[in-house]
């Protein structure tokens, strides 16, 4: 009786071993493993909202936004221009209000029909417990539309696993210099 049991256990365990080996072969040499989310202290996902003002200063000696690509023949929509930005993010619409971070990245004028930007930027926060954390915004920004919605595609630090969206509304736009202050309402799911 004991011997039969041992044989059954042996057969089960060897077939198990064979299955594991085959699974490892199939899933790309076994370099990926699943992890218990608790090991990364991931608990409840939460939704955060914050409103910040984005200052794009293209003029003067302290410009925070500079053109790095300018086509030789610039069309009415500026198609082809690319600006690199390091724009202050403040709590109020005034540049002198509390600085909470900077929007770093670039935008490309990528529409031939209207003034439409491809935005690719990280909001790098410097305030309080968010200091050092970032969210990444990547999306389409037709600047003369009242509300422009762009996806939040990720984040770091306290914003790990972030996803969500931002809504941008122009607060002021200086048509002479191109300087702009834009209100960003950010809705972000993260842990
Ligand atoms: C540029 O920044 C410097 C240092 O913050 C400041 O002293 C100066 O007034 C600024 N210039 C302009 C034109 O804003
Ligand atoms: C520049 O653009 C204008 C209008 O878009 C066009 O009429 C003109 O031929 C262009 N010039 C060159 C050199 O491509
Ligand atoms: C944010 O963190 C950096 C580096 O850790 C530090 O130098 C800086 O003083 C911090 N800023 C604020 C506002 O706490």
TrEMBL record:
It holds the Pfam family Dirigent. Transmembrane segments: none annotated. InterPro entries: Allene_oxi_cyc_Dirigent (IPR044859), Dirigent (IPR004265). The keyword Secreted applies. It comes from the Eukaryota. Keywords: Apoplast, Secreted, Signal. Residues 1-20 form the signal peptide. One of its GO terms (biological process) is phenylpropanoid biosynthetic process. The keyword Transmembrane does not apply. Its main location: secreted. It is found in: Secreted, Extracellular space, Apoplast. Coiled coil: none annotated. PANTHER family: NUCLEOPORIN-RELATED. Homodimer. Belongs to the plant dirigent protein family. This is Dirigent protein.
């Amino acid at each position: 009786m004991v011997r039969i049991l041992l044989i059954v256990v042996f057969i089960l365990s060897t077939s198990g071993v064979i299955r594991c080996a085959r699974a490892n072969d199939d899933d790309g040499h076994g370099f990926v493993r699943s992890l218990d989310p608790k090991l990364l202290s991931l608990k409840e996902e939460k939704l955060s909202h914050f409103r910040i003002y984005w200052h794009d200063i293209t003029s003067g000696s302290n410009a925070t936004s500079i053109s790095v690509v300018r086509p030789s023949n610039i069309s009415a929509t500026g198609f082809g221009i690319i600006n690199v930005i390091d724009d202050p993010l403040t709590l109020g619409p005034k540049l002198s209000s509390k600085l909470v971070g900077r929007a770093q990245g670039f935008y490309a004028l990528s529409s031939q029909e209207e003034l439409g930007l491809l935005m690719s930027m990280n909001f790098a926060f410097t305030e309080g417990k968010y200091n050092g954390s970032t969210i990444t915004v990547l999306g389409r920004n037709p600047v003369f539309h009242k509300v422009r919605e762009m996806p939040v595609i990720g984040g770091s630090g306290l914003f790990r696993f972030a996803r969500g969206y931002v809504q941008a509304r122009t607060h002021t736009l200086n048509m002479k210099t191109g300087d702009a202050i834009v209100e960003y309402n950010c809705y972000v799911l993260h842990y």
